[in-house]
């Protein structure tokens, strides 16, 4: 009953490629995880893409997705006050929609990491006593590897903060898409368009990007795709190491 043709997808992501194949909806297969935590950081930036001395997280949105129904169950959403460059650039505000008032007075990086850890405990995703893995199997999902492998890793190193163990592995949504659809998507917009999903909200708003990523997850799951961990945190100060797939500096272009 899920076998209807729902849309069309590119056969290849080569520049100028227009050949498409139909998307087969086979129904959701049992997944290896109980939950997916969809994450998309927004960070300080300027027209060159980065802000000296480092890019800092200013929006930390996570949506908890049920891995059986692919419905959104809960969310963690925190704006973050940057340490090094507390004044947002006009470029950053124009790109992300995050105005100065939204970060002023908000928790800083390490306090936000603690708030996220507390939320994971409230959700029974971590053992409340010692923060170890709970009985639930879950993983983070990001669009690209930049959020964790570059941004989080660099900022944590800057603050001599140990990245919690649950950031060691994650699913790169672009790699998942490439496994499910047979070609690598260069952007979130291509994934949405090729899956016939209407873009929700504002591009580069972290929480809106996460909601769009949730729709992509559900649509890929409906093809029968079973998600697997694709990426891990490399050793070293700022390294990025997707297990496979092209490298990219930023995520959702
Ligand atoms: P995204 O998840 O694609 O919305 O972007 C994450 C972060 O990457 C943004 O908050 C910016 O810090 C940076 N970024 C994304 N696109 C650009 C761009 N065109 N120019 C400069 N920085 C960008
Ligand atoms: Mg974003
Ligand atoms: Mg992103």
Task: Walk me through the structure.
- Residues 35-226 form the Exonuclease domain.
- It comes from Steinernema glaseri.
- It holds the Pfam family RNase_T.
- GO terms for molecular function: 3'-5'-RNA exonuclease activity; nucleic acid binding.
- This is Exonuclease domain-containing protein.
- By secondary structure, the protein is α+β, with helices and mostly antiparallel strands.
- The protein has a single domain, classed as Nucleotidyltransferase, domain 5.
- It has helices at 90-96, 100-103, 109-122, 146-158, 173-181, 188-194, 206-221; strands at 5-10, 20-24, 35-39, 42-43, 57-66, 72-79, 138-142, 169-172, 231-232.
- The strands form two sheets. Strands 3, 4, 5, 6, 7, 8 and 9 form a seven-stranded mixed beta sheet that branches. Strands 1-2 form a two-stranded antiparallel sheet.
- β5 (57-66) and β6 form a beta hairpin.
- α5 runs parallel beside α7.
- The radius of gyration is 18 Å and the shape is globular.
- Residues 40, 42, 204, 206, 209, 252 line the site of one magnesium ion.
Topology:
Elements: E1 5-10, E2 20-24, E3 35-39, E4 42-43, E5 57-66, E6 72-79, H1 90-96, H2 100-103, H3 109-122, E7 138-142, H4 146-158, E8 169-172, H5 173-181, H6 188-194, H7 206-221, E9 231-232
Parallel strand pairs: 3-7, 7-8
Antiparallel strand pairs: 1-2, 3-5, 4-5, 5-6, 8-9
The chain binds adenosine monophosphate and magnesium ion (2 copies).
Residues 40, 143, 147, 209, 251-252 line the site of one magnesium ion.
């Amino acid at each position: 009953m899920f076998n209807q043709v729902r849309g069309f997808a590119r056969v290849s992501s080569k520049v100028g490629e227009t050949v498409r194949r139909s998307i087969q909806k086979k129904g959701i297969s049992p997944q290896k995880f109980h939950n997916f935590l969809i994450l998309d950081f927004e960070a300080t930036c300027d027209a060159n893409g980065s802000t000296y001395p480092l890019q800092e997280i200013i929006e930390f949105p996570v949506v908890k997705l049920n891995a059986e129904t692919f419905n959104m169950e809960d969310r963690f959403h925190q704006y973050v006050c940057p340490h090094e460059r507390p004044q947002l650039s006009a470029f950053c505000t124009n790109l992300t929609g995050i105005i100065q008032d939204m970060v002023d007075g908000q928790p800083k990086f390490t306090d936000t990491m603690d708030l996220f850890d507390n939320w994971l405990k409230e959700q029974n995703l971590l053992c409340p006593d010692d923060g170890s893995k709970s009985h639930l199997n879950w993983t983070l999902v990001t669009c690209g590897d930049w959020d964790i492998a570059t941004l989080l890793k660099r900022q944590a190193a800057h603050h001599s903060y140990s990245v919690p163990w649950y950031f060691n592995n994650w699913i790169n949504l672009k790699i998942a898409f490439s496994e499910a659809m047979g070609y690598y998507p260069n952007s979130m917009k291509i994934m949405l368009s090729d899956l016939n999903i209407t873009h929700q909200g504002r591009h580069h708003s972290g929480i809106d990007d996460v909601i769009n990523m949730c729709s992509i997850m559900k649509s890929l799951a409906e093809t029968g795709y079973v998600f697997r961990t694709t990426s891990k945190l490399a050793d070293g100060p700022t390294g990025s190491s997707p297990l496979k797939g092209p490298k990219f500096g930023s995520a959702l272009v």
